[in-house]
Amino acid sequence: MKIALLSSFFLVSTIGFSQDFKVIGYLAYWNFSTAPSKIEWNRLTHVNLAFANPDAAGNLSFEGTDITPVVAAAHANGVQAFVSLAGGYLTPDWQTNWNYWMQPEHTQEFIGKIIAYMQANDLDGVDIDLEWQHVNDLYSPFVMALKTALAAEDLPMTAALPGGYRYPQITAPALAAFDWVNLMIYDLTGPWDPSNPGQHSPYAWAQQCLQYWKNQSLPGDHQTLGVPFYGYDFSTTPVDAKYFGEIVAANPFNAQLDQVGQLYYNGIPTIVAKTQLAQTETSGVMIWELGQDAFGSYAEYSLLKAIDETLHPVSGNNQALAINVSPLLYPNPAGDFLNVMKLPEAGCQAQVIDFQGKIRWSGDLESSTAIDLEGWPAGVYALRLRTENGVTAVSFVKI
Fold first, then answer.
1. Which pLDDT band, with edges at 50, 70 and 90, does 273 fall under?
2. Are strands 328-330 and 223-228 parallel, antiparallel or unpaired?
3. Alpha helices in 41-180 (DSSP H)
4. Is 378 exposed, middle or buried (0-12, 13-18, 19+ CB in 10 A)?
5. Nearest Cα to Cα of residue 202 among 142, 273, 111, 306
6. 3-state secondary structure string, 211-276?
C-alpha cells in the first residue's frame, strides 16, 4: 500500500535557498542506541545531541549515555554535532546544579568544563536550551561569558527559544551573541491544556512567530524554523503524544494529513510548506526530534526526506509547497457526489487519490464543483489541490 508523495505537477520554488541553509535535527539521548543506524544523515547539516546537564561537580553527562557512536556517524556524513545543554525539563538536582554553576563566581570554571567536554568528544558547537522558569537573571551573563570563550576556540553557540515568546531576562547583547536561534514553533497546545484541542503547530502560527522574532531584532538569517515530528491525541485522557512514525505505521494514508480524529500533527504537505517558508524567510529548518520520524518499511513517508527533497527537488519528482487553507467538502462521508466549496483560490487544479495511491480523478475546480463518485469503492480518499501559492490535502470518506 503506497501513496504517491511526489507529483510532477506540484512544483517548488527554490527562491532564497543557499548552500548555507541548515537542516538541524535534535536527537534525544534515549534514541542514541537505535536511531543513528536509521537516520539518513546525508539529509542533515547539523545534529543537536539532547540533552547534557552538569552534575554537582560541573561535569556534563547525557545520563551516562555514550555519545561517541552518534558523533562518529554524524561526522562520517559531514554533519556537525552540537551538544545541547539543559532541555525543557530539569530534575531538581539538575536545576540546583545549573543555578550553582551559572553564578558569576563559578561561571569560568563551568565554561572550562564545557569546552573540555567538547574537545574530548570532538563536538562542533554548543546549543543552550534552558527554558521557562529556568531562564533567570543568570542566563544572559552566562551566555555572554560562554560566547567569549567559544569564540576564542572558533566554536559556534546557538539557542533554542520559544516560537512566540522572548524571555524578559534575555538582553539584547545576549540575543545577538547566538550564531542562530532554533525557534520551537510547536506546542501551541498539548497535554497541559486538554480542554483546548487543535493543531499545536499550524502553518499560520509559524509565519507569525518568524515575524515576532524579527520584531525582536532577530533577523531571518539568525532564525531556524522548528518543526515537530510528533503530534497530540486529544481523544485520550491524559492527552497522548504520538511519534509521526507511529501515526504513519497506523495508516500510511495519514502521511498526507494533519489531523486524524482528535490527533493533530504536521503531515508531509505542511512540513513541505514550512520548509519552503524557511527557505525564503530564515537560515534553516530545525527538527524535534529525529527519532520520531518514519523509518524502515515506512521510510518513504519520512518527514526528513520530505524536507530534503523540497530543498533538493528530484527532476520530474518534485515536492510541493502547501497552503494552510482547506476547502469545504460536503457531504462527508459522501455518496455518489462530493461537493467541493470554499476553495483557497479560484481555478484550483485537483486530484483525488485513493487509499492505494491511485489517482481516481483530476481536473480544475471552480468556486463550487461536484465530483462524481458513482461506482467508486467505499473507503477513505485524499483530495489534493494546487494553486499558484501551493497545495493542500484533505481527506473524505466515500460510503
1. confident
2. unpaired
3. 68-76, 92-101, 104-120, 139-152, 172-177
4. exposed
5. 273
6. HHHHHCCCCHHHEEEEEECEEEECCCCCCEEEEHHHHHHHCHHHHHCCEECCEECCCHHHHHHHHH
What's the start-to-end Cα distance of the chain, in Å? 21
Report d(CA 244, CA 289) in Å as an integer.
10
**For the residues of 313-372, what is the DSSP string, one character each?**
PBTTB----B-S-PPEEESSSBSSEEEEES-SSSSEEEEEE-TTS-EEEEEEE-SEEEEE
CB 294 within 8 A of CB 262: no
Helix-strand-coil percent breakdown of the chain, rounded to 5?
30, 30, 40
Cβ proximity of 231 and 240 under 8 Å: no
In this prediction, residue 337 has a pLDDT band, given cuts at 50, 70 and 90, of: confident
CA–CA distance, 53 with 134 (Å, rounded to integer): 13
Separation CA 24–CA 13 (nearest Å) = 21
Residue 132's alpha-carbon distances to 86, 210, 262, 368, 385, in angstroms, are 12, 19, 28, 47, 40
Amino acid at 316: G
Domains, the chain, ranges and CATH?
Answer: 22-311 (3.20.20.80), 328-398 (2.60.40.3080)
DSSP letter at 377 equals P
Per residue in 109-146, pLDDT (tens digit) is 999 999 999 999 999 999 999 999 999 999 999 999 99
Give me 117's grid cell: 567536554
Rounded Cα distance, 21 and 236, in Å: 38
pTM, full prediction: 0.80
286, 274 Cβ separation under 8 angstroms: no
